[in-house]
Design brief:
This protein has six helices and three strands. The protein has about 220 residues and is mainly alpha-helical. The protein has a three-stranded antiparallel β-sheet with strand order 2-1-3. Strand 1 and strand 2 form a beta hairpin. It is elongated and about 70 Å long.
């Protein structure tokens, strides 16, 4: 819905394969090139405005969730260092989900946000598996116990990630009818999962070792 300052409105319905974000950007570009008088202003409302407000709430919820996870991981792993590593790895996956959308030239919409949440859940599970196994191998987390935990969890994590990626691949490619609306979800999920596997198996133990070395030097 396009609303002007004199309270008149124009209802616009995008094509089924075009997301609200792209439709709103297209409308904004069209209106900017109309050279409207200075005393006329406009705003885009309707479902797009609701989606924007939902995104703001989701960002807030994600921030609060990461903070709660930091506290819970500290108790779960008996190590705040492990908790910090876990939060860094989990939050970084969102960046690569967004990067995958940028590469595929897709806009961030509600379905893509659901894909990011799905990636968060899977990466959280991977991190818990690694550090829980590390705690089983040693009473305190060490370089060796974390490395052995990664080695023992390598195959399950890769198999799970690969199965999820293959499952979402048809949606990302666009195979089948009515898959356009789910492309952002599949693309964000695949991008996040690819980096999530690398982050869980490589970055997490590397960060743990780095933090341990810094702490040892101090």
């Amino acid at each position: 819905m396009l609303t002007t300052s004199n309270f008149s409105c124009i209802w616009v319905k995008p094509y089924y394969h075009i997301g609200l974000t792209k439709a709103a950007n297209d409308i904004d570009n069209i209106v900017k090139h109309m050279n409207l008088p200075h005393d006329i202003s406009y705003s885009i409302g309707g479902y797009y405005k609701q989606q924007t407000k939902s995104f703001q709430n989701m960002y807030l919820i994600l921030t609060i969730a990461l903070f709660i996870l930091l506290i819970l991981f500290g108790f779960q792993f008996s190590s705040q260092k492990c908790a910090i590593v876990a939060i860094i790895v989990i939050s970084s996956t969102a960046s690569f989900s967004l990067l995958s959308l940028l590469i595929a030239r897709l806009n961030l919409d509600s379905t893509a946000f659901l894909g990011i949440l799905l990636v968060f859940a899977i990466v959280v599970n991977n991190i818990i598996l690694i550090f829980t196994r590390s705690k089983q191998l040693s009473k305190t987390h060490t370089h060796k116990s974390v490395a052995l935990a990664v080695r023992s969890r390598l195959r399950p994590i890769i198999m799970t990630m690969s199965a999820d990626i293959v499952g979402f691949l048809p949606l990302a490619i666009g195979i089948g009818k009515s898959t356009d609306l789910l492309k952002p979800l599949a693309t964000a999920t695949i991008g996040g999962l690819i980096f999530g596997a690398f982050a869980s198996l490589i970055i997490a133990p590397s960060l743990f070792s780095l933090f341990s070395i810094v702490k040892y030097k101090k």
